[in-house]
Amino acid sequence: MDDTVRRRSVIGAVGGLAVASLAGCLDDGADGAADDTGGAGADDSDSDEPEPEAIGSDELVYAFSPDQISILDPAAGDVVDEITDEFDDESWADPQITHDYGLLFVVEQSLNQVHVIDTETRTHETAIDVGPGSNHIFHPVDDEIWVHADDDGAFYVIDVDALEVSEIVEAGLEGEGHGKLLYHEAMGDTGYATNVNNPGIPVIDLEAYERTGFVEFGDGGSTHYKAYGPQNGLAYVEYRGRTTVVDTETDDVVDELDFTGGMFLSPEEDRLAIVDDEVYIVDVTSDSSDVLGSLAIDGDPSTVRFGPDGETAFVANAESGDVAVIDLAELEEVDRLEAGAFDGRNRMAVSGDEYFVTPADADESVAVVDMTAQEVQLIDVGAPVDTVQYVGNSGVGYTGRYR
Asked: How much is the pLDDT for 51?
């Protein structure tokens, strides 16, 4: 059977539902019926396949390549397992692990699907059809994964237990546009969406699955990167080359910072790193959002993660193929760690316990930085990797709790 046809039929009902309802609940009878390919909801009672063994993935790293998923032990510096089931030139993006670390969801962009990996058995569970232009993925509540479909400007909500789309939430004002979801447990059932076609942020009721308002920033422009400071209750949103600050209690714009870029909250939730060519450190414990300082970083800085001691930060650089180490007290660069070559535009990284992990796709490797010893090892996976996920406590941003 043609692999493309088989995979598109896994949750075949979703495509038809998008026309029927872009906001609120889907029809009760359209909940991902089983088919002969064995997707979500299939009856496996007659299968002769043995149940996979629960071997666990605690403190391991999943590294995504076009034809395989490699499972790495960062402490040993080895590849300990691989998943190759049915993968063929996949285009992976934006993995998200559940709160209990039991399931790993990852977008496959070429077919607009979300693949599900069971981290206990290290097996591929299923692929779920979602909306066109799927890109970013979020986990605002325990039993749901939200996937943004850029062509619809909507979130496709996946029920974690049923492994099927249960809701479609219209977010973008114009029905399309690349977007993200801002949420935090301190915000309760309220979230905000960003969208490159909107001059502000739609207010999303996470429980009712609908857009309930819009916080307007100006007459035009777009929103993209976002962050939230739970200690001061302020949202930080990229808008027109600046960062607009919103009081989430009143939905009022209360401040503006004259720089913007990717935003990364510290594990203590007291500092926000905003990275462009410079890394800016913002105090997010007070209403004034004081800028503690900034530091220029050479080499196309992409992703910032804070060290386990709260005294250092690590910056993955796409162009220079290294990781910069920043002393946060002095706000100065104290070291450069060789981390392998990277071909892409934006070099992602995740932190996990004492490790900082970033792909080195041009070297078909993954760089693992011991953040305490400030030493690097390259783990050879034999294929280009541009997406990674740690299984365990990875601090704010990649635990499956806040992004």
From this structure: 79
* pTM (2 d.p.): 0.86
Tokens of 229: 């400071």
- Residue-level pLDDT at 395: 66
| 3-state SS track over the chain | CCHHHHHHCCCCHHHHHHHHCCCCECCCCCCCCCCCCCCCCCCCCCCCCCCCCCCCCCCCEEEEECCEEEEEECCCCEEEEEECCCCCCCCEEEEEECCCCCEEEEEEHHHCEEEEEECCCCEEEEEEECCCCEEEEEEEECCEEEEEECCCCEEEEEECCCCEEEEEEECCCCCCCCEEEECCHHHCCEEEEEECCCCEEEEEECCCCEEEEEEECCCCCCEEEEEEECCCCEEEEEECCEEEEEECCCCEEEEEECCCCEEEECCCCCEEEEECCEEEEEECCCCCCCEEEEEECCCCEEEEEECCCCCEEEEEECCCCEEEEEECCCCEEEEEEECCCCCCCCCCCEEECCEEEEEEHHHCEEEEEECCCCEEEEEECCCCCCEEEECCCCCCCCCCCCC
Low-confidence ranges of the chain (pLDDT < 70): 1-49, 395-403
